[in-house]
Structure prediction request, 321 residues.
Amino acid sequence: MRVLTGLQPSGALHIGNYFGSIRQVKMLQDSSDLFIFIANYHALTSSKNDNSLKANTLDAAINFLSLGIDPDKSTFWLQSDVKEVLELYWILSSFTPMGLLERAHSYKDKIARGIAANHALFSYPVLMAADILLYDSQIVPVGKDQIQHVEITRDIAIKFNNVFGDILTIPEFKVDEDVATVPGLDGAKMSKSYGNTIDIFCTQKELKKTTGKIVTDSTPLQEAKDYENCNVFALAKLFLDENGIEELKQRYKKGGVGYGHFKMYLKELIWDYFEPAREKREYFLNHTDEVRDILHDGAKKARFIASKKIEIIKEKVGILC
Ligand code: ADP
Ligand code: TRP
Prediction:
């Protein structure tokens, strides 16, 4: 089963990213033929045109490797290292009705937020279709906001196949319904755009400061506390097994302990949980050549498949090779 997903290199990762996405991708490495890449061409559509994309891309590779993406279990590469994807992007553009792209929510939302429309932002789903179809991907795990893009991919592939026969594999999207939304410091969805995140790779001092900012109610120290509506509890739960959760509930119910104490406890849980990832990250930060080698090896594996597929496609559409 070929499973493929792309991850945007979008700066510091927070624990919402980990529990909402990275952890799932990591688990898929053991059960499928996982293809995973860093979508740096997609990130270009929202880049500030300085050198930050380069830095963010390397940083993303280091972060994903540190958090458990294993190049021995999956094929992990940089989107821009397999140039065939841009050839397919152009070919697919000829099979993409304007109306299909005009209906894309993500594009419409960005325009509504005042982001200047450029062609790449508009044709973003066609490049995503190329990412998916180039590798005969069967399953595409995505967040809810990306479902429509996989549907567009299906539409494009079906249109292509109607003309040329069963050449492209029609993919299915996979959305993990079990994944709960991780709350941020204020209880709203944790998100970079809301400035309410707890970053995975911050210093211990920063972690103490951010966890200290989590919004709680004003129940006095001596009284029992409502764990069900507590942001600290909701976050701590992510790091605990059933027994740990039960114990924590009892401590909330018992009273006599203030929120400051629970926040410290949460800080320790987060710090310990990401200790191995921090150590790996430290290593990769000091061995960036190794990271580039991993990405190159991944690109080589990906290109082996991509180059065969693009030849078949070019031959079909009449591009002289
Ligand atoms: P942000 O909202 O901080 O910009 P992204 O949109 O870059 O985060 O999210 C990348 C991935 O992480 C997506 O798959 C998304 O579903 C997941 N994710 C982000 N925030 C959360 C959250 N608070 N809870 C669960 N999953 C999340
Ligand atoms: N657009 C996706 C996102 O923003 C990233 C992405 C690019 C992707 N190409 C893909 C995801 C192909 C799945 C399949 O999250």
Summary: The first strand starts at residue 2 and ends at 7. The chain has a mean pLDDT of 95.
